[in-house]
Amino acid sequence: MKNIAVLIPSFTIEYSIGILDGIYDYFIDKDVNVIIAHTKFSHSKVSPFDYQYWSSVDYVKAKDIDGYIIVSGLYVSSISMKEFDSIIESLGPRPVVSIGVNSDRKNVYTVQADCDEIYFDIVKHLKEKHGCKKIAFFSANSSDSAEALARYNAFVKAMKDNKLPFDPGLVMDGNFTDFTAEEQLLAKYKNKADIDFDSIVCANDSMAAGCVRALQSLGVSVPDEIKVVGFDDAVVSRILNPKLSTINQNISMQGFRAAELMNEILTGKKCDKDVYVPLEARFRQSCGCISCADNSHVYMDTNGKAEEDGYSTVQAAGQFFADMNEKNNLMTLMDTLSCSNTLKQFFYNLRYLAEQCDMPEVYINLFKDVIYNDPEDDFEMPEQLELAMLCDLENNVHTFKPGVIFNPKECFFASRSVKSKPGIYIVHPIFACENSYGCMFCKIKNKNFADYIVHLKIIVNSIAQSFDYTNQITQAENLKNANTDLHKQSRTDELTKILNRRGFIEQGQAALDLMQEIDKAGVIFFADMDGLKIINDTYGHEMGDKAIRLQAEVLKSAFRSTDIVGRLSGDEFGVVAVGMNLSQVNQIRLKVQLLAEKISKNNDLPFILSCSIGAVDLQKSSVLKRLLSEADKELYEEKRKKRNARLSLNTK
Fold it and tell me: pLDDT tens digits, residue range 171-190?
């Protein structure tokens, strides 16, 4: 059985839902496993922890994944083609079907919209049906989106093929947003008399909506004086006044054709590298094909035939009750999870959660230890995952910690029973803030993708909390029974006898959490010895070790007994100073300097110990590692000042 991964950055926009609908419809009765990965964007900073979703990509890089469908148009709307190409490269030589964006790589096949044909039909319609001769265009070329450029080029070609003059002066750029389009049009045309076009075609519906607002504010009647056409057939096109003439991308068909193409590739069929899905025009009120007085839900196709448009009253009522039912489900879900303190308690509720959320199979895979995932670093997948919980409603299997350990780089599915059954799954990383715990994936029964991703998010948050609480009580019990000396030894630096990195991070983070909880002041210090390399090169490493040991003594003496001091690496030290303010930092620097001089003299060192110190307060983060990084930046500024001072003395 083949395993196919689908990479998509968002589940909650119309385009995504349409693509996933098509993929689902094709694969639902096929003998394959489909894993849909909600990825967002690598190192994304749109929301504080968006970057954590990107680890979903690493889960589907397992060797038993046979091919990929990538919703490329959404990726390249936010990242460069170079960055997108690096994503494809990271997936290796396995076949890739790209939806919306072409690639020169041999293993990449493309499904995309046929913009040339539809834009020819649009321009022809405006020319022959409405007598338009001067057609303007709202592009989004400034976004560097491949789709934006394709639409612009197709429009230019359509003007030429319809024997109409293309005027670059009638091209504006709205960067795909309605407000930008509105601002740009009003910046160029100050009043109605300035307008030098009779119609305008926009590269998406949002920009078309902005155009309509701008034209109406100038006193221009749409469609009587200016015709407006959009692209996407988004919901806004049906609720705008006047209703927007637009281009329907046949999005669901693009997803369906991508799935079909991937299946053909994996079954060894010879396939075209590029597949084009035809688009269709939907002419409504904004070009004049439907009267603005007509409130019926219809549009005209390119042949002038009236077609039903949008939800009926019955469908709208059905959607309303479905939405209300989903809200009730969410409240029940959160009430249920509020009782899950430990992982075992969570497991007792898992069967009910699976039934409530229409998840016939649920798999929860956990790392042995929590992984700190910094937003600036690339996620590193460990070589061991544990299948911690399994709930298979179809086969009445409900297991806690079955003892299955597997390498996620080798296989996505830990259980052999899963591999033998076809299904469509969604994978979601388990994380809380910067901490990563593993991943959860579930089989789905319907196409309510947005509901599934919300349910999964609520559930993984609960898993993370249960994991942490279970670890806390386990560690507390272990500490009672463990040899105290061994525990202390594992957290003490052998050379300096102060806390090592592990001990410092543990105790320092606990102190930081308490300080922020009770709103107490504090300062995080990062110290780095000056000239250790010169000491090692001149006097030998034995003397260098002595210098490190004495520097630790300096810091331990300079700070209070309540402060937490640790050695982070070779010549780097950290300090968590409880209750201290930044105003005291210079006093600490002076104290460290004087103590260093005294200890150097008392130990007959052939040099004077010295270190540079960076410091930050608790306002920048709740994470000790991040605060140390900020203090490190301040440290380098301190080193720069010292270098400049030495240069100044040498000059004199």
Answer: 999 999 999 999 999 999 99
Name which of 4, 14, 3 is nearest 449 in CA terms: 14
374-405 residue pLDDT tens = 888 888 899 999 999 999 998 899 999 988 99
**Residue 260 C-beta-side C-alpha neighbours within 13 Å:** 14
Strands 522-529 and 572-578: antiparallel
Please, are residues 156 and 121 in contact by the beta-carbon 8 Å criterion?
no
Using alpha carbons, list the distances in angstroms from residue 10 to 78, 226, 519, 523.
12, 35, 37, 39
Q: Per the structure block, which two tokens stand in for 216?
A: 């109406």
- Secondary structure letter of residue 634 according to DSSP: H
**pTM to 2 decimals?**
0.71
Helix (H, G, I), strand (E, B) or coil at 394: coil
Rounded CA-CA distance 192/212 in Å is 13
Rounded-to-integer distance, Cα 171 and Cα 283, Å: 22
Tell me what pLDDT residue 91 has.
Answer: 94
CB of 621 closer than 8 Å to CB of 630: yes
Amino acid at 254: Q
Whole-angstrom CA distances from 249 to 100, 211, 246, 282 are 11, 21, 10, 10
- Range of 66-80, 537-551, 625-639 with top mean pLDDT: 537-551
CB atoms within 10 A of CB 375: 16
d(CA 252, CA 189): 38
